[in-house]
Amino acid sequence: MKRSRSSLVHQLTYAVKNPRKILPHLRRLVRDMWFRLHTRDHVAYYRAVMRSDTARDPEGAVGSHTHRRWLALGRMQFDYLVEHGLKPECRMLEIGCGNLRAGHLFIGYLHTGNYYGIDISPDILVAAQDTIVTYGLADKVPYLTPVRDLRLGFLPDAHFDVVHAHSVFSHSPLDVIEECFAHVGRVMKPGAWFDFTFDRTEGKEHQVLREDFYYRTETLVALADRYGFDAAFMDDWERLPHKQSKLRLTKCASA
Ligand SMILES: C[S@@+](CC[C@H](N)C(=O)[O-])C[C@H]1O[C@@H](n2cnc3c(N)ncnc32)[C@H](O)[C@@H]1O
Question: What b-and-e string marks burial along 215-253, b requiring 16 or more CB atoms within 10 Å of the CB?
């Protein structure tokens, strides 16, 4: 069983094994304290994290520290979704689209106007516009919209075939995930699905600073059930070179 990353023993063991990571972690710790003091809630906090990270490097801000890795992570998400049902005619909502690491491939593949990306960070959405220019995707008319919550009130009923959120709930407390589950069903067409990744722990649920959140699968499955979703654990995703796990939600027949 994995030991909680928030435990002091884990942190000390990790520091001894990875001395070069001590300084960057201390910097994160100081930044965490500063943002906690100066932001009112989690979304404002994480928006500040993204502002600071995007100013340094937009690709690093979404978790890829080399361009090669950015391309590979985007490709991995895209290939998986195409192998698991994404068709060019689908209408897709990407929650936490970042600077379109996978989004640029989705936009190129989907019919014009069928991609809708939302994010809490205006800074990363400006970087996403740069990605659209770099990949010559303006003619596909992708929508990119900043949001302050996941109530999705500005989106129409039963509109999307596919909802996708990669590496977003790994940065979200449970109330943010619950807000999403409570509202996302309304914008999904009958038969639509919602794929998301999460940092899975088999031990105690925990968080590192306010940036990284670790959940047990059964917590998210039970929460999804409460909002009328069936959840499938995507076993074949586990074989890919990625640390997070993936769940697919579909609306229960009775919902
Ligand atoms: C690690 S990045 C991943 C970006 C993109 N999904 C990808 O795979 O490249 C996480 C993104 O989710 C966004 N995000 C975090 N919490 C969010 C929330 N509650 N609602 C919408 N976006 C959120 C962040 O601003 C950031 O752009």
Answer: beeeebbebbeebbbebeebeebeeeebebbbbbbbbee
